[in-house]
Amino acid sequence: MARRKKIFEGKAKILYEGPEPGTLVQYFKDDAAAAFPTERRDTIEGKGVLNNRLSEFFMTGLNSIGVPTHFIRRINMREQLIRAVEIIPLEVVVRNFAAGPITTRLGIPEGTPLPRPIVEFYFKDEKLGDPLVTEEHIIAFGWASQQDLDEMVALALRVNDFLSGVMMGVGIRLADFRIEVGRIWEGDFQRLIVADEISPDSCRLWDARGIISADDPPRELAGQTDAYTELAQRLGVLPTNVTHAGKPTLIN
């Protein structure tokens, strides 16, 4: 088998040169994505297989309702064919409930429903800790135009509507999530599409099936080592020929 050219390797995925111009192969690793670059990363056996299936499920669903994504097709258990895009150096975060940094930044109790979905932008730079930035920063430094930002917000809110509905249908509250957006060119015209992945690595998921008491903090599905399996089971996309039995195993 011919050796493939590696384009990029991140915390949870590797990008290889695709078989056709304008395409890439996205490989899903078993590495657990650390919150900060200095943290030790564990390996969760089988996670890459599940995230490949889950991201395929969400991206295919978005494509079917007219939200453009980079996803073309799944190749095998760990790889998918995607469109090559120019990634805008921003993480777009949509928050439906108070959780994580917004609770400490604004003093809002964790689990509080927000009055409406809040869209935030974070500059993609691990060395700086992916800092929160305003639209004024983004436009001033040329990371994106005002038109780009308007389109990114519209895309993010459409993704939020889709994901919130799908998750609630299987007893999960979507507290927040992040996406990345890429530029593609069709002739002289630019189009923005959803890129990267959508999986438990990029979402904060809370169990909504009443397993916990009202006095307890929200049960965070994505904080468990079996979150990947549980979500795949609830959505009906669990692969039948995974090599491990039961749930993914956290390897220290």
Descriptive report:
With 252 residues, the chain is of the alpha+beta class. It folds into 2 domains: 6-84 and 225-251, Phosphorylase Kinase, domain 1 (2-Layer Sandwich), CATH 3.30.200; 86-223, ATP-grasp fold, B domain (D-amino Acid Aminotransferase, Chain A, domain 1), CATH 3.30.470.20. Helices cover 25% and strands 33% of the residues. It contains 5 helices and 13 strands. The chain has helices at residues 47-64, 101-106, 135-140, 146-169, 227-235, and strands at residues 6-9, 13-17, 23-28, 43-45, 71-74, 79-83, 86-97, 113-123, 132-133, 172-186, 189-195, 203-207, 249-251. Strands 7, 8, 9, 10, 11 and 12 form a 6-stranded antiparallel beta sheet that branches. Strand 1 and strand 2 form a beta hairpin. The protein is globular and about 50 Å long.
